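About this split. The held-out portion is used to measure sequence recovery: a designer receives only the structure tokens and must propose an amino acid at every position. Recovery is the fraction of positions where the proposal matches the reference. Here is one held-out target exactly as it appears in the evaluation file.
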């Protein structure tokens, strides 16, 4: 999954914790790259109880990692994500095709 703001793709992680962060935007789980984390206006959902943006969304629930509050995600948010995916970087389909050809031994 690419960064929801800039479309950057994750690379294979080095040992240790990933510098990428998770967040929830319009009740949908998103990833945030290290560069975009420096921005102050990430437009992420916040916990209604404590105001934290440290939320995770899973199985139709949104959970706050700060206070532990859990609530159901809105059903209209689950039906169709209002978050439009960022455009694919140029050449992405060619990269994927080349990788599949290498793995499958195609010429």
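Reference sequence for scoring:
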């Amino acid at each position: 999954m690419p960064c929801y703001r800039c479309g950057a793709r994750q690379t294979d992680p080095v040992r240790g914790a990933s510098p990428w962060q998770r967040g929830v935007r319009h009740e949908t789980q998103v990833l945030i790259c290290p560069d975009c984390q420096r921005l102050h206006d990430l437009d992420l959902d916040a916990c209604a109880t404590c105001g934290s943006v440290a939320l995770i969304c899973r199985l139709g629930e949104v959970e706050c990692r700060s206070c532990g509050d859990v609530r159901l995600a809105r059903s209209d948010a689950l039906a169709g994500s209002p978050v439009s995916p960022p455009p694919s970087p140029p050449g992405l389909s060619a990269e994927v095709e080349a990788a599949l050809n290498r793995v499958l031994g195609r010429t």
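Annotator remark: Residues 21-104 form one domain.
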